Amino acid sequence: MSLPYAPRFAFYDGKRQSGTSTSSFQTIDPATAEPLANIHTTTHAAIDSAVVSAQKAFPAWSATPPIERARILQRAAALLRARNDEIARIETSDTGKPFSETSTVDVVTGADVLEYFANLVGGGGMNGETAQLRPDAWVYTTKNALGVCAGIGAWNYPIQIALWKSAPCLAAGNCMVYKPSEFTPLHSTALAEVYAEAGVPPGVFNVVQGGGDVGAYLAKHPSIAKVSFTGQVATGKKVAGSASGEMKYVTMELGGKSACVILPDADVDQAVDGAMLANFFSTGQVCTNGTRVFIPEAMKPEFEKRLLEKMQFIRPGDLHDPNTNFGPLVSKPHYDKVKSYIKHGIENDKAKLLCGGTEIPSWLASHTNKAYKNGYWVQPTVFTNCTDDMKIVQEEIFGPVMSILTYKSVDEVISRANNTDVGLAAGVFTKDLNLAHKVIAQLEAGITWINTWGESPAEMSVGGWKQSGLGVENGKKGLEAWVRNKSTLVEMGGAVPTVFAKL
Ligand code: NDP
């Protein structure tokens, strides 16, 4: 049977490697549950070859002047922009996210980061510091590339994650072996081809395909200097454990259960818009989602009334229709997981179901594309009268499931928002900016917003606190995660200042 997309293989030495696999699996269109492409799992021997390819490329790439690397990466950013819609369509097929999202967010925010790091290193971002100790003695520092690095990505923002990892990695002079999630691997070859066309030398950016086993092999590989991982907390702990045990550098971008705090003076309409953005964008499959929505007790009736009215503006349907703003969940296992949380919320936690639930969405029965009824579609769901001890309030669901909690005082809401072992993101909605800053200062999270949610520009360093991760991506600090420091003291006094001189 011919499939919509060409098979995916490993990519190293600057080209697709079709003889590197002994088994394959299929990537599935979440909207219809139909196969999209055959993906050939990279063997351990071929992973070794990808690492060797990167090792061979490293000396020349790391010695290339930053401004020349910058020019090549800027060309890649321009190619990504020129192919925005084509790549966005691939992402829509693979992830199930509407084209209205992938064409405006996924590729764009990846290309922006590539351009940002290219400009940063081209503009002196790799320069170190100097310190004059005495008139004839100086300390200078240099930033040095790490070597061959591994990038392991999650399935929710495939090309964006691949770019957020590879852009600073390559800009700093490293080489990368990248493993996409087995659920969304299609973008990986498209990105490798863009880099190659832009002039990135063979071996600098490489791809291996497969599941957790491939990721684990790569993360443990003795020739890998750093592992940058995006995924679940539990997987991140395993990966960080095996990598840091070998003194590899690690960056961990992990899960969360973020608090979206509506302060007492907030405009109700704005608060509802914010809470919806924090819960239903990308069908709730965003790591920073504000799934614990805290509202003042007195605001609850009006908030829920307006929320129910605005829930009508969530438009599932044909993913390529520009008006569609809600897609299916990414995969069958994830669909089962999210539905079991909704069921648990109803039957065990006994939260009040305000809307949504586990029933198959009613619009599917009359949809023109009959295959859609096989897809992983769920209803956007809101639970209210929630309490902090409920499982749906405590655990990351990673789906379109909002939990509404009420509070009496600002001090109380801060303490309850922080009462979790994760700390990825948090945000407040209010007209009182003094209060906003005071509350934000007390929230234990690495990424915070005031009167908005979810925007994560290239300039903004992002990373989780507590169990949500280690290190940051993006912004100036994002480059530091891909270099190691060397400090050199230069003595120019003309004589070695020895303590062993003749008395
Ligand atoms: P997983 O942890 O399941 O997988 C992440 C990646 O790790 C995948 O490529 C996966 O491969 C791979 N992997 C699985 N097991 C291992 C292993 N033992 N060693 C090495 N690699 C392994 O996460 P999900 O893909 O389910 O992603 C969703 C999670 O990612 C959520 O928790 C979300 O919050 C988090 N996330 C965090 C972000 C952040 O910036 N903080 C951003 C986006 C998502 P495969 O998929 O093929 O099994």
TrEMBL record:
Enzyme class of the recorded protein, top EC level: oxidoreductase
Domain of life: Eukaryota
Gene3D superfamilies according to UniProt: Aldehyde Dehydrogenase, Chain A, domain 1 (3.40.605.10), Aldehyde Dehydrogenase, Chain A, domain 2 (3.40.309.10)
Domain Aldehyde dehydrogenase: 21-487
Catalytic activity: an aldehyde + NAD(+) + H2O = a carboxylate + NADH + 2 H(+)
Enzyme Commission (EC) number: 1.2.1.3
GO MF terms, alphabetically ordered: aldehyde dehydrogenase (NAD+) activity; metal ion binding
Active site residues according to the UniProt entry: 253
Record keyword Oxidoreductase present: yes
PROSITE patterns: ALDEHYDE_DEHYDR_CYS, ALDEHYDE_DEHYDR_GLU
InterPro entries reported for this sequence: Ald_DH/histidinol_DH, Ald_DH_C, Ald_DH_CS_CYS, Ald_DH_CS_GLU, Ald_DH_N, Aldehyde_DH_dom
Keywords of the record: Metal-binding, NAD, Oxidoreductase
Family matches, as PANTHER family: ALDEHYDE DEHYDROGENASE-RELATED
Family note: Belongs to the aldehyde dehydrogenase family.
Protein name: aldehyde dehydrogenase (NAD(+))
